[in-house]
Amino acid sequence: MSAARLTAHDQFRHWAKNMIAHHYGSGGAGEATHGSRELYQSSTMGALLDGVYEGDVTIAEILRHGDFGLGTFNHLDGEMVILDGVCYRLRADGTATRAAPTDRTPFAAVTRFHTDFDIDIQTPTDQAEVLSAIDHQIKSANLIYGIRVTGRFSELRTRTVMEQQRPYPPLTEATEGQAEQRFADVTGVLVGFRTPQFQQGISVAGYHLHFLNSERTGGGHVLDFTLEEGLVAVGGASQLHLSLPTSGGFLDAQLSGDDLSERISKAEGGQRNDDG
After folding, report:
1. Distances in Å between the alpha carbon of 220 and those of 198, 213, 258?
2. Residues 242-255: pLDDT tens digits?
């Protein structure tokens, strides 16, 4: 009787192990967390470049897929920061407010943030030095990384595109009227991603960062910064879930072109978009 019970128990354990391995990868339960690290993205950067500024996806839907990320809102009415499960809208005047669950987005990227490694910054360090320090510690330039930088910034420069009206111009034209903000001696957090070069056009290759101050009242798309002191936290993702619109302007958008990288760099304010 005891042998029969042991056999049944062993069979159950074998079945459970196989189910876990099937769901999370061959590494089994020990790698469950790593196997489930996914970036969920709605639409593409190429669509934004072509003026597709209206989407049907709500903030409530985006937040079902993660607690950390960035994007924009319909009509380009503000930059998006998702931090600790809360979505903020950063407008052209530099202010930040909580977004409504019913607000909609034409482009957003979100994940469940975790930390693989961190870098403690105790002396003034400019943007290029911070990004280079990250590059030297990541496992591979071919994976996606969530980047969270919390600290005090002696200088920080952001921009936010103003709300657009129909007929929508391409993103490179829309950003020509962007509003720039300069912050001095400010505390807050940078939220964003480091994306592989081969994803250019799907995402923004290289670094794409947004800023939100500690009071959650101001921020924008990051152009440049000097980190006085703070903590850089980095977490990798090996899965990309890309959700494409099935209606609207996306269906007729021009999503490629020889000058794709050049147009993205211009729209992003010349932010570093290479692999090192």
Report:
1. 26, 9, 29
2. 999 998 999 999 88
Q: What is the mean pLDDT of residues 180-208?
A: 96
Residue 20 tokens, joined? 């876990």
Tokens 């090192």 -> residue: 276
Phi, psi of 59 (to 5 degrees): -60, -35
So what CATH class is 37-267? Answer: alpha beta
Q: What is the pLDDT of residues 36-83, one digit of tens each?
A: 599 999 999 999 999 999 999 999 999 999 999 999 999 999 999 999
29 phi-psi bin (left φ>0, alpha ψ -120 to 50, beta other): alpha
User: Per-residue pLDDT tens for 199-218?
Assistant: 999 999 999 999 999 999 99
Asked if residues 134 and 116 have their Cβ atoms less than 8 Å apart, the reply is no
Distance (Å, rounded) from C-alpha 229 to C-alpha 43?
A: 35
Residue 115 and residue 234: Cα distance in Å, rounded?
5
Structure tokens given for 140: 């591979």
Residue 62: closest CA among 109, 113, 98: 109
Task: Please give the biggest Cα pair distance in the chain.
Answer: 79
- The continuous run of DSSP H or E covering 16 comes out as helix 2-24
How are beta strands 239-243 and 38-42 bridged, if at all?
parallel
